[in-house]
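S1.2 Input.
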Amino acid sequence: MKTWNLYLSGEIHTDWREQIEAGCKAAGLPVAISSPVTHHEASDDCGVAILGEEPNKFWHDHKGAQINAIRTRTLIQEADVVIVRFGEKYKQWNAAFDAGFASALGKPSIIIHQPEHAHALKEVDASALAVTQTADEVVEILRYVIQGELKGYTDQAQAAE
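S1.3 Output.
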């Protein structure tokens, strides 16, 4: 049976990644999960920590963004499904970029956000194959896609092997 590679991008201030991972495990889904570095300070400072200090904040951020892009680009390219969560408090420009990159590569994506962000994210939503509000909805989409199972239906399709 195929192991599906999931890339989880987006906000880092809640446990949504852990919820998806736990839900996939409980559902017995054959998935491997990856994500960007979610330690905020390490992600911001990796460039200067490795390559040397920068007096100009632009170049400080630029170094870090380039190093982080090595991980992000590689893992999105390897992903079967890209899942992007937009949080309620912060604007995740990097998440929008990841969603666009996934779309440009033709990667299926699932977007998670609250209804109040629908207008701001309309272009991101339009490129996604599903737009959800919860981690549970994501897990149910994955259960259906991977195993052909839909809760409440007794005549289930057999999972492709």
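S1.4 Remarks. The chain has a mean pLDDT of 93.
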